[in-house]
Design a protein that fits this description.
Number of strands: 23
Radius of gyration: 18 Å
Number of domains: 1
Structural class: mainly beta
GO molecular function, one term: aldose 1-epimerase activity
Pfam family, one: Aldose_epim
Keywords: Calcium, Isomerase
Distance between the termini: 32 Å
EC number: 5.1.3.3
Cofactor: Ca(2+)
Strand content: over 45%
CATH architecture: Distorted Sandwich
Order of helices and strands: EEEEEEEHEEEEEEEEEEEEEEEE
CATH topology: Beta-galactosidase, Chain A, domain 5
Shape: globular
CATH class: Mainly Beta
Length: 293
Amino acid sequence: MEQIKNEHLTIGISAHGAELQSIKDSDGKEYLWQANPSIWGRHSPILFPIVCGLWNDTCRIDGKEFNMSRHGFARDTDFTLVAQGKEKVVYAMHENEETLKVYPYHFNLAVSYRLAKNKIKVVWHVENTGRKEMYFQIGGHPAFLIPGLLPSEPMHGRLRLDDTEPRRIFGNVKGCVTPEHSAVVTEEGILSFDEELFKDDALIFDHSQLHKVSLLNHENKAEVSVEFKAPAVGIWSPYGKNAPFVCIEPWYGIADWADYDGEFKDKYLMNKLLPGASFMSEYTITIGETDED
């Protein structure tokens, strides 16, 4: 695991999946879930080239069927460290014999982490290196420890959303979603949660409803904030595990509709790149109060 640090934060990143695995402040306090496999054995996986699940784990590309497991293969692939500075690190991967069996595109995927005071800038860069139009989805899945939660307590916490009346879609049909929306009740944007909130899997907000989600401490102050421009975000904790963490997940993509049997390129929230073109986006994790708080 490589580390970069400044006077505010020290973060650790693994080449396996280019996964962020630790966020500590100057006092050594850990903010990221430490991947106990009995609950959930990941920290902050990168979701590529799909977000969430395919119906029956199958997609159709140019009329041919391919099988791909949930969230794609990037999270289980070893990346190459291509650049490292005092406050920035960059990892990359490209297609190989195994990825071409499930995803018939040539690409470069680079992931960078950069520190800026009490912020972590996570940047995704996808390049189409092939000769045909490429389709993909990408997303983040960081898991943050719930502030002040004691081991003896049932899982609960509070989130602050930048929309007071958000509407969710459900992902409870064999790992896929249904298009109907329903209201999520907040107290002027404050969403109180416990394990029951995740009984039907993640809360998924599409249509660019949200651009900032903050995990609050007992003083109602932001302990961790995630800011993004992605069109969708998932909020998740594993149901039935009494997990002491919650995931805040910016997504450029979403699961298949239940019973979807169309082409991969026509999936909801699909991204495309012409040959030689590239896509870049970022999200920001802030530890403690943000400038706007």
